[in-house]
Design a protein that fits this description.
Strand 11 (146-148) and strand 12 (153-156) form a beta hairpin. With 252 residues, the protein is α+β, with helices and mostly antiparallel strands. It is built from three helices and 19 strands.
Length: 252
């Protein structure tokens, strides 16, 4: 098979993967706590190289994308002030801990609320974990005032009912995204509690997605055009191959 087919096919698949990731980033531009994904590609020469004096040239020009890896960008997103007493953003390192049917998960999405049983929960209904377990705001009612302090202390009418559990996974968190701004720890990875003196929270605010909407749309257009270029090139190459076959058939 023509070596160019391998190169263009792998390039087209890489462009498609990038298109899907950029589209996902743009789609989550308004998702609190979302962390953008960035693709990293590794390119290598084809295994089968031509023999003879042109071998060196082919080895340098005929290549294919061998691996595509998604790197999660954990840079802090813009902090948006809301005035909601149950909203809170982490300034700097750390993740909130929540309990899900699949076990503990980690998130930067601090847009919390209270469920029907009085527990502090995420938008998806997962209960937020404190140093002593789930945090219940049962005392809240008409006239009651819940609040979250900049040190993670949760109070109701100025009486402490819990303290948010904040954990760290280091400078390069080994976390696996699961959707809804939730992350699971990679196998063999364990969270480290953030010391109380180092917890830095912004009350009545939340961390928005670390995705620039304008830059994302520009990148989306650019990637779409790149993918179309690969597809057009493959169609053109197919036409050339077909014409060559037809011409060879007429030689006899």
């Amino acid at each position: 098979m023509n070596r160019s087919i391998y190169t263009m096919t792998s390039g087209g698949l890489a462009a498609l993967a990038r298109l899907e990731q950029v589209a996902q980033n743009v789609a989550n531009v308004n998702t609190a706590g979302y962390k953008a994904g960035r693709l990293v590609f590794r390119v290598r020469p084809l295994d089968e190289t031509a023999a003879g004096p042109t071998a060196a040239a082919f080895a340098g020009t005929a290549a294919q994308v061998a691996e595509v890896e998604t790197i999660r960008d954990f840079a802090t997103g813009p902090i948006r002030t809301t005035g909601n007493p149950l909203d809170v953003a982490i300034e700097g390192d750390g993740f909130f801990v929540v309990q899900t049917p699949r076990g503990e998960r980690y998130t930067r999405q601090g847009t919390f609320s209270m469920d029907a049983e009085g527990y502090l929960v995420t938008p998806a209904g997962h209960r937020v974990q404190g140093d002593g377990g789930e945090i219940n705001l049962r005392g809240t009612g008409t006239g009651s005032v819940p609040a979250i302090g900049d040190d993670g202390t949760v109070t109701v009418d100025r009486s402490e009912v819990g303290r948010l559990r904040i954990v760290s996974f280091g400078e390069k968190p080994a976390l696996v995204p699961e959707g809804n701004a939730l992350f699971a720890a990679a196998p063999g990875t364990f969270p480290t509690p953030v010391e109380q003196s180092k917890v830095r929270l912004a009350p009545e605010a939340y961390e928005s997605a670390n995705v620039d909407a304008v830059a994302g749309m520009i990148e989306l257009v650019d990637v779409t055009r790149g993918f179309e270029t690969y597809m057009n090139a493959m169609r053109r190459l197919d036409e050339i191959v077909q014409r060559a076959i037809d011409d060879i058939g007429r030689v006899g």
